[in-house]
Specification:
A hairpin with a 2-residue loop joins strand 19 and strand 20. The longest helix has 18 residues. The chain is mainly beta. It is about 10% helix and about 65% strand. The chain starts with a helix and ends with a helix.
Length: about 725
């Protein structure tokens, strides 16, 4: 941190000086200042119910993928396992109000296949209202660019990124509007290759022995994906609109992994043995969504009825080969572990919902709705020993897991204004029945529960310069389907991953008080409590020297947070956003054979500097810096991370096209490092995810840009995200 900040300030000063040379004279700046302020959106905006990150204004976020753009959104953390979080809250990903029903590596692959140049902004909702599904602690809503004109128009884009390997993205959007008919769509292609390097350690210690396992792992995933959408809206008459939309995602992932593990026994500096493990895997995913929707305007006062019906089929086929050779010092080959584990997952989701918007007494706006969802998931995992090139099935380690879930939901909310007060209150109820059936293990787990989730938003506008707000909500996160699957997936003879069918849904409760001065300086104070958070945990057996990952509900995590955010414009050629958050975290939970508790402080800093280097030639620059302090997540101690990135853009082709050059994570300070030192659990890792890269991108818009296709929030949003 101490070495990074001076460098950041130096780069910022250099760009400022460059912009100063292209600055127009003072008199012209004074005359045009008001016009510039109203015509250029800040990169980050804060509103009562959300924070908005304007991706289209960010040189560093655009030109990459949507997954990379999420990393730039203020307060959002991501990892390569597909987790999107803000502090302790898991964030549910939406696109244009439609929830992305994927988790894990599929979510990473999907968002990595979408060009960020197709995105207008990212909305971050910490406390969503009652009309949203209660899945997840908060919502990240990705809003794509929409054309706005009669006739045919759209955009095309492409980018090349060089890290350890080269990656390419390309895509485009289109919109055709003619009288009552509107047809729209988009397409994105990604060919992404990266290298992850991981160093691990595990110390197995008993009263009679001590063994230190040190591993070096290189992972080379290659992901090729296609994402697409085609939709149609037809105005039957001025009061009725019918529409359908089809979206699809096809992904083919190939991963080669090589691990060398040296074993040091009894504190000896020379390795007693070496384990050489090679893993080759292929995964092909197909995810589709078919939506029919109908809107009826009941009257001219804004009362309306919306109906959505969805069918979502999902399929994943995976094949993994694991070969591990153990060498003993001064001896020949000792053991050969060779397995082949194919697996399939099939998920079918049917859902329907109806939403009614109406008014009471002419000024109170009401929203009410119902929704029903039926889910069926079938997972088959086969374990085969490979002996002299032939497969030998092991039924004891194979598994067939079936899962069904049926949820009925209803909500209502009311909002209105009383003088200087803006009020909104809502209540959502969900009744869920689930059955998890491990056919191989003859284990059936059933759950049946009804939960109510209130929301409240209050805003008091004392004056234009002084606004106070308060909000409260309660939400829930159901485990992903694969987190419930008890099948074991082996990565070596001594390590495996396994789900937990006994997982319970997590409950989130949070409240926030904020004060905004002159519409630009916002102070926040918030409290959140998480119960039964579903978390990955590692368990090591010091006697058998085995190590595995599984899922567990953590007991309680409480955060007390203070935050500050502002947008500044020192001059008409320099924009600045600053976000600061500090939190005090208390947590306690059962873990393995003991009880874990911790109290620590967390600091998050984020700033973005935008410069107009030459207004005449359309040249801009952007410099961003981020810092996250160390933190405990359960028994995991996660080390600090930081990131400094720099980008340039130039308008071409009569300002219809843009070329961008970006340098991400320049000092490579964004690794993922964690350690566990609790009871008899002593292990850790540091993983570098190829975040340092340079990218060159081009985007071009054609046609007019004055009409927006209708946004849909369909019935199947919550369920598709949880598919793996």
């Amino acid at each position: 941190m101490k070495t990074i900040l001076p460098i950041f300030i130096l780069i910022s000063f250099t760009l400022s000086a460059a912009a100063q040379q292209n600055r127009p004279d003072t008199m012209k700046v004074q005359q045009l200042k008001d016009i510039v302020v109203t015509s250029r959106l800040p990169q980050v905006e804060r509103r009562n119910d959300k924070v908005i990150f304007n991706v289209q204004n960010s040189i560093l976020a655009s030109g990459s993928t949507v997954w990379d753009a999420l990393r730039k959104a203020p307060g959002i953390q991501t990892n390569e396992n597909g987790q999107v979080t803000q502090g302790t809250k898991s964030m549910t990903v939406y696109i244009d109000g439609k929830q992305v029903q994927m988790t894990g590596e599929d979510l990473t692959a999907y968002l990595s296949g979408l060009p960020a140049d197709n995105v207008s902004r990212i909305e971050i909702m910490r406390t969503p209202s009652a009309k949203y599904d209660i899945q997840g602690g908060g919502i990240v809503n990705i809003i794509t660019k929409k054309s706005k004109a009669q006739g045919f128009n759209g955009t095309i884009n492409g980018a090349y990124t060089q890290a350890t390997f080269g990656s390419q993205t390309a895509g485009g959007t289109f919109n055709y509007k003619q009288n009552k008919l509107n047809i729209y769509g988009n397409y994105g292609f990604s060919n992404k290759s990266i290298r992850r390097q991981m160093n691990t350690y595990t110390i197995y210690q008993t009263p009679d022995s001590y063994s230190d396992w040190r591993g070096k792992r290189t992972i080379d995933p290659v992901n090729k994906s296609h994402s697409y959408q085609l939709g149609l809206d037809y105005d039957i008459n001025p009061r009725q609109v019918f529409g359908f939309r089809v979206t699809g995602f096809n992904s083919d992932r190939n991963t080669d992994s090589r691990t060398i593990t040296n074993v040091f026994n009894d504190h000896v500096s020379v390795a007693d043995s070496t384990l050489n493990t090679n893993v080759r895997s292929n995964s092909a995913s197909n995810n589709y969504s078919f939506n029919l929707n109908y809107k009826l305007k009941l009257d001219s006062a804004g009362n309306s009825l919306n109906i959505d019906v969805d069918y979502v089929p999902y399929a994943n086929n995976s094949r993994q080969y694991v070969n591990a050779l153990t060498y003993i010092q001064d001896k020949n080959l000792n053991n050969n572990f060779n397995i082949f584990t194919p697996s399939t997952q099939r998920i079918n989701i049917w859902s329907g919902k109806a939403d009614l918007t109406y008014k009471i007494a002419g000024k109170w706006a009401m929203e009410s709705g119902i929704k029903y969802t039926s889910i069926a998931s079938d997972n088959l995992f086969l374990y085969n020993n490979v002996l002299e090139g032939a497969f030998s099935p092991d039924d004891g380690k194979s598994n067939n897991f079936k899962y069904t879930e049926n949820t009925a939901a209803a909500y209502t909310s009311i909002s209105g204004t009383l003088g200087k007060w803006d009020l909104q209150a809502g209540l959502r109820g969900e009744h869920t029945r689930t059955t998890g059936n491990s056919i191989t293990q003859q284990l059936i787990t059933r759950r049946n529960y009804l939960r109510l989730f209130p929301t409240l938003f209050i805003t008091y506008k004392a004056s234009e310069d002084h606004v106070f707000s308060f909000n409260y909500n309660s939400r829930m996160e159901r485990p992903a389907y694969m987190q419930l699957n008890p099948a074991r997936s082996y990565s070596s003879p001594y390590s495996f991953q396994q789900g937990n069918p006994a997982l319970r849904p997590a409950i989130f409760r949070s409240g926030e008080l904020s004060y905004t001065f002159k519409q630009n300086y916002t102070l926040t104070a918030s409290y959140s409590k998480l119960q039964d958070l579903v978390s990955n945990v590692t368990v090591q057996d010091n006697v058998s020297k085995t190590f595995y990952d599984t899922q567990q509900n953590l007991d309680n995590i409480e955060d007390y947070t203070l935050g500050f955010m502002t947008n500044l414009r020192p001059t008409d050629w320099w924009d600045m956003n600053v976000t600061i958050e500090g939190a005090y975290r208390k947590q306690h939970s059962m873990y393995t054979d003991g009880y874990f508790s911790s109290d620590d402080y967390i600091l998050y800093l984020n700033t973005t500097q935008s410069f107009v280097l030459s207004k005449k030639h359309g040249i801009k620059a952007e410099l961003s810096g981020r810092y996250e302090s160390p933190v405990y997540q359960g028994v995991y101690h996660v080390d600090r991370t930081s990131d400094i990135s720099l980008g340039f853009s130039k308008s071409i082709l009569k300002q219809q096209g843009t070329v961008k050059l970006a340098f991400a994570d320049i000092f490579y300070k964004n690794p993922y490092k964690l350690d566990i030192a609790y009871l008899q659990q002593r292990n850790g890792m540091i993983q570098k995810n190829d975040t340092r890269n340079v990218s060159l991108s081009f985007s071009y818009k054609f046609g007019k840009n004055t009409f927006s296709s209708r946004k849909r929030q369909t019935a199947s949003e919550e369920e598709r995200r949880r598919a793996n």
